[in-house]
Design brief:
By secondary structure, the chain is α+β, with helices and mostly antiparallel strands. The protein is built from three helices and eight strands, in the order ββαβαββαβββ. It folds into two domains: 61 residues, 3-Layer(aba) Sandwich (Ribosomal Protein L9, domain 1), CATH 3.40.5; 75 residues, Ribosomal protein L9, C-terminal domain (Ribosomal Protein L9, domain 2, Roll). It holds the Pfam family Ribosomal_L9_N.
Amino acid sequence: MKVILKRDVDNLGEAGDVVDVANGYGNNYLVPRGLAMRATKGALADAEAMQRSRQRRAERSRAAAEEQQAELERAPVVLTANADDEGTLYGSVGVTQVAKGISEQLGAKVEKKRIRLDRPIKETGVHDVPVQLHADVVATVRVEIAPA
């Protein structure tokens, strides 16, 4: 049975996609929950319109992410932390401090979950911190940790 997805469904497709599913899955799960509708000629035209609008939305989202990338990469973020004489921090600098520094110093709001730190920063110096702004756009923020 062919159905048009009204919403994104994991492991199946995105809104507006025309997919072929088992009759029971379509009739008993997708259609009653409002996740899909049967594929008719009129509905296929609606599906094409959904796909076009999704593509326009994705293009605008990518353009906004690229603008934010340029904004984030223009200047370093300087953070201070207590450290010993060798440059080892007594604590660590994590995504919360990095997000707060970006917000205060660069004026850009970045969600903590977008900051991709493998592990907290535990040394003074310059560190490149990746920030996932879009599926295809990753900004590299230069974070300078100075001893307090």
